[in-house]
Specification:
The structure is a homodimer of 410-residue chains.
Chain A: H1 9-19, E1 26-30, E2 43-44, E3 54-55, E4 59-62, E5 76-83, E6 98-102, E7 114-117, E8 121-124, E9 127-130, E10 140-141, E11 152-154, H2 162-170, E12 175-179, E13 183-189, E14 193-194, E15 206-207, H3 210-220, E16 224-231, H4 235-248, E17 251-255, H5 260-273, E18 276-281, E19 285-286, E20 292-296, E21 299-304, H6 308-326, E22 338-342, E23 346-347, E24 353-363, E25 366-371, H7 379-383, E26 387-391, E27 397-398, E28 403-408
Parallel strand pairs in A: 5-6, 13-16, 13-17, 14-15, 17-21, 19-24, 22-25
Antiparallel strand pairs in A: 1-12, 2-11, 3-10, 4-6, 4-7, 5-9, 8-9, 18-20, 20-21, 22-28, 23-27, 24-25, 24-26, 26-28
Chain lengths: 410, 410
């Protein structure tokens, strides 16, 4: 089979970047349920957080100038004029020479500018001995220190982490607009493939692995999944099922097609689903060369290689970036791959990016990546691996001890 | 307040390791739905995967010896005696000097030991010209290469990744026993704390951040969450609510208690919930010193610091390891923290582990970690951060350019 349009990894990623965007559906949900979802609105704070100046310690609210020069041997003497209660307004003005007891989180009284910790004072009746001088603002969080009024709290396109939900809670934003989860449909093809439920295999049959692994990976990365099952290598039934899934889903993943016959069908089906059709027909990687990426209408359709290890590696390389685009994510990604040393020489062909599976080992001198060799048809090689290492297209291989970047499998 | 029992990070982790285990509930679920769950049974394969020897390429099944010495100029000549069909038994015995067409994934015919790729042959009627010699076993996955009969496919205690579900599918294991998700209850305390839903804050009041961030983080790490809401600093109402949640949940997280009054209540409530009571009362870390870990019956109860950034850092340090134990996870963890260089000097006190929030920057010479300074009461510092860096207890600080390990926030 010929690949008319073989692209590099970078070219393929640029094509993904250029062609795909958020699926468009947004919905309003409770912010507390939104971890892992992508925010679809800019959230601007209408108020200050905290709304008032607060103490960060248990101690006495004072004017810092009243403590200047205070030491263990020569304390400052202040008059205790009140006690701040948690969750209550601090209304009593704090005059020069005065101190008011304040608990952690308590509201600073007007007139006070700092808090001296309980450890650094001694109460003698209504008199307070202060044994340490403090600076103005010390042990205080001022109104608006956390979030200012009118500040952009979180921008649209951000995938929400626990702390992001926390800051939304702090400004009273309990309902937010998020992008809906992209719906991914997975369809396996191949005359030899039977659903995993089949207990008695006929000679020549194997169970469907890719539907399960690809669906699970898509779900981990924030998608909802529709299982399309397995279809035989017959253009009409393949097209019919693919077309039906294409209508219902935001992203169609076809898996299988490692034999010439099936690969041909896959391309025909991808072209028949809609314009503009196939964008990438083959990528200069190993494993995973027979990867096909198409666009039918606005929707991505991807033909994954049939070998289970290839399929999951290709999904990590290109399926996840597509999912991120569909999810509305706009964050510029930092390369957060782990660095490790490779435990042995690995040869590679120039002009092709190789992805080798590795197991991470912790040794006294740091992390090492042990290649897990084995044909890409063996799912067990991925089970034994923690991640994958790229040998870039311009390298002839990597030498034992060389530092490599490991993309971890989750 | 005194901490009678301040532990180091390592001591605290050892106490967690020693005291807590799987919540015990297991359930049978479809394997396809089990990504992120922890397997509760050893899965042994009753069969071989693949169940028969298969070709990994499109080509001709042959005996390797028949190709020995074949070159472009002096090809080997074989007789084409059949065609293997995908998904069908290969029944025709392959004799010396013969070849049978075989598609990728097809079943090897008896008598054949290798496959010559279609690219290296030429068909001339029923005659096959083979232009390259191949080795026995070349381009073949043998029966059992992926999984052997009687092999331990995945051991109990393993958190299931997509590829793990794939190998389970390959052996026809579509229903598995997993540990139930631990149920985490989160309860916030403090007279100044009001639920995030409250739109009009009275003077002195702030919204509850920790319930939201801690619940979201627990959910990300595989827990189900019960929100307990907010209770006031009153022993009776605090105990009553905590006790009710303790009955219903597997792991109770109390948040708040940064003022002396609340902290005292928290310890009393933890002790009252059941034996053996408080195991860790204070950890030598910053932020997060007022962390409390208790055990009531078999269940963990944790008192988190009230400051939002401290609470989430402490949850990452100790809450997640507790959740892993409750989940039944038995995998020995590798230290997979990312390495980066710190962008500036950071001072630290010896005898205490400091956790500084950092933003990761990608520079031409690699990853750099930029400290995000700010009081631990500010949730916005975590929003601006990608992870945290530990300055170990035996270090006085870190110098600009030094390599540090970054634990990423998800």
């Amino acid at each position: 089979m010929k690949f008319f349009n073989v692209k590099t990894v970078q070219e393929t990623l640029s094509i993904i970047e250029e062609h795909f965007g958020p699926v468009g559906k947004t919905c309003r949900i409770p912010a507390a349920d939104a971890v892992g979802m992508v925010l679809a609105e800019d959230v601007i704070s209408a108020e200050q957080v905290p709304p008032f100046s607060r103490s960060t310690v248990d101690g006495y609210a004072v004017r810092a100038t009243d403590t200047f020069g205070a030491t263990e041997s020569l304390p400052a003497f202040l008059e205790i004029t009140g006690t701040i209660e948690m969750g209550k307004a601090a209304e009593l003005y704090l005059d020069e020479g005065h101190a008011q007891y304040i608990p952690t989180g308590g509201m600073m009284p007007p007139g006070a500018d700092s808090v001296v910790m309980i450890e650094h004072v001694e109460e003698v009746g209504e008199l307070l001995n202060v044994f340490r001088q403090i600076a103005p603002g010390e042990n205080v969080i001022r109104a608006g220190d956390d979030v200012n009024r009118g500040e952009l709290v979180i921008a649209a396109g951000h995938r929400l982490r626990p702390q992001d939900l926390g800051v939304l809670a702090s400004v009273g934003k309990t309902e937010i607009s998020v992008y809906g989860k992209p719906v991914v449909a997975v369809l396996s093809t191949g005359d030899e493939i039977v659903p995993a439920e089949v207990q008695q295999l006929a000679p020549g049959e194997v169970r469907d692995i890719n539907s399960i692994t690809i669906a699970a990976a898509a779900r981990q990365f924030g998608a909802e999944v529709m299982y399309g099952g397995v279809v035989k290598d017959d253009y009409d039934s393949f097209y019919k099922k693919a077309s039906q899934l294409y209508q219902e889903a935001d992203f169609l993943l076809l898996s299988g097609g490692s034999s010439v016959g099936t690969r041909d069908f896959t391309v025909q089906v991808l072209e028949a689903l809609g314009e503009p059709g196939v964008l990438v027909h083959g990528v200069s990687i190993k494993p995973g060369k027979p990867t096909i990426i198409a666009k039918a209408g606005a929707k991505p359709v991807m033909g994954l290689p049939g070998h289970p290890a290839s399929a999951l590696i290709v999904f990590h390389l290109f399926g996840i970036p597509i999912l991120e685009k569909l999810s509305g994510e706009r964050t510029v990604k930092t390369d957060l791959r782990l660095e490790a040393r490779i435990t042995r020489n690995v040869a590679s062909a120039v002009g092709r990016s190789d992805y080798i599976r590795v197991k991470i080992e912790q040794r006294p001198d740091g992390l090492w990546a042990e290649p897990v060799f084995g044909k890409s048809g063996l799912i067990s090689t991925l089970v034994a691996s923690d991640g994958m290492v790229e040998i870039p297209a311009n390298q002839e291989g990597i030498r034992e001890g060389e530092i490599v970047k490991v993309q971890l499998f989750r």
